[in-house]
Prior knowledge:
The structure holds two protein chains of two kinds. Helices cover about 35% and strands about 25% of the residues of chain A. Chain A has helices at about 45-55, 75-80, 100-105, 120-135, 150-165, 180-195, 210-215, 240-245, 250-265, 270-275; strands at about 10-15, 20-30, 35-40, 60-65, 70, 85, 110, 120, 170-175, 200-205, 220-225, 225-230. In chain B, the strands form two sheets. A two-stranded antiparallel sheet of chain B has the order 1-4. Chain B has one domain (about 25-325): ABC transporter involved in vitamin B12 uptake, BtuC, CATH 1.10.3470. Chain B has helices at about 15-20, 20-45, 45-70, 80-95, 100-125, 130-155, 165-170, 180-200, 200-210, 215-220, 225-250, 260-270, 280-300, 305-335, and strands at about 160, 175, 180, 250-255. The longest helix of chain B is centred in the C-terminal third of the chain and has 28 residues, at about 305-335. Helix content of chain B is about 75%, strand content about 5%. Classes of the chains: A alpha/beta, B mainly alpha. At the A-B interface, helix 2 and strand 8 of A face helix 9, helix 10 and helix 14 of B.
Amino acid sequence: xxxxxxxxxxxxxxxxxxxxDVLSDIxxxxxxxxxxxxxxxxxxxKSTLIKTLCGVYTPTRGKILMDGKEVHFTRPxxxxxxxxxxxxxxxxxxxxxxxxxxxxVGVEPTKGWGPFKRxxxxxxxxxxxxAVQDFGITRIDDGDRLVGGxxxxxxxxxxxARAVHFGARVLILDEPTAALGVKQxxxxxxxxxxxxxxxxxxxFITHQVMHALAVGDHFAxxxxxxxxxNFMKGEKSREEITDLMAGGxxxxxxxxxxxxxxxxxxxxxxxxxxxxx
Amino acid sequence: MSTQSSSGPxxxxxxxxxxxxxTGTVIGLLVVYTFFAVLGGPVFMGAPGWSSWLNIAAEVxxxxxxxxxxxxxxxxxxxxxxxxxxxxxxxAMLAGHYGLPAMIAICGGLGVxxxxxxxxxxxxxRTTIPSLIATIGMMFAVMGLTLGFAVLIKGSTSVSYxxxxxxxxxxxxxxxxxxxxxxxxxxxxxAAYFWFLHISPIGNWVFALGGEKESARNxxxxxxxxxxxxxxxxxxxxxxxGVAQVMTYQQAQVAGGQSFIFxxxxxxxxxxxxxTGGAGSVVGIVLGTMTFTIVNQGIFFASxxxxxxxxxxxxxxxxxxxxNDTFRAxxxxxATRKK
Lengths: 277, 339
């Protein structure tokens, strides 16, 4: 892994909104075939960091490098063209469109010639269904189905399959498992693994330590806009990571929380806090 | 996969048909038509009846199509009600008052629509004003300008113009003395909009735009250009109706046209387009337009109190919105069932 330049690298990145420093001095590297888990409590700056990576914000100071070369993103499209794809919590898809149609929004396959180009529904449906099935979601077999009829996990999977199909090299997953039940979440985690096997760099944002430990190779913990920890798999225990996420304060409360997490990982409280993000 | 009967990829089934949002509209249309056919008798079912509602449907229908497309994309256009008289006034002024050739006057009238649509689009894409408010503002501004210029130039609120026979036969003729030539134009507009929304790749953008604007933009849809384009279509279509009115009635009036605002929206909603955007179809809009105008005209043939017609339309609208929601829920639930 170390012999190649990382696909995406942040060097001393700061981001301020007026007098407020949201991110300060962030250094991060992601390699191909690696899952970087970005952990942090609400308000730690995770969202700002993602938005900086995918071109919504430009860093106030510091550099973003891709394949060792500095890049500047002025809008999300720039980042997308470089192969950085973001999948949001609810999949970012269109609930009332068919799978085939929503898969190809903006890049519609066409038949015919000149002004008489027609949307090629058959091709769109075939390609989109195949792309999702290749990721192991075999329940999706009809491209005419509406996206809104899929389960949360299936929608995430569809969005990830779409990103991979259109040549993403870096996949940013923003809390993909936050609103999902145990089964659906494991679906998505399996797909994250599959994307990693295909050589993508995955940035997996979560505040569920269990999910992070299940797929992560590399962990970064954000606390109040600063990188509080940056370590590889196996270097720290789950307790230490959870401790870090909570800022190392109030051990007694923390331990109670950890005990709670074992039994009620998907309690409504988790869902609620994540949706406020 | 081969054993599936109702949800196979290429299968056609009653279940799938029942989940199409147009189904409710077809049922509504049949019920309404049967109701008035029984009350109105052979006159309503014959040529006089058909011509009376088709003539109205053609005018509203031409405007309802782009209004529906805008609604699918998540926007409203209330300014159509002011564009109709503005464009007919422009056409009558250029041809009737200044004596310019009909072709130039028609282009002038249509130009008014395109310009209003363009400005609407600019306001909506450049500011955060919701389209409902922006186009209401536009409607009043255009109404004021129309009245102001008419009084300033002509000193009157109506301008007359007698079109040459060719123009008259293309835009303002009654076939067999009953059926307005606009019905054929409506059919043409339906075909063009159907192609645009359901067959061309750009139609996909309209649905995506109404589904979620941010995602559509991130996927590479030129959302601003598309929105401006859709508003220009709606301005153009409303202006076309205005121009056709001059050729039909040989006169342009400053007032009139406001009825198109609510009527077009009702046609669209009865036709199964979701008020919140993201779903709808051209076939649905056409069916909704027919349903609306059958009630509108059927009242006279059934010799009922016209107020009853308004009540029927009101109820129809409420039922339509409810059933749109139900059909949407059905369509969404279709895939979540476990096999």
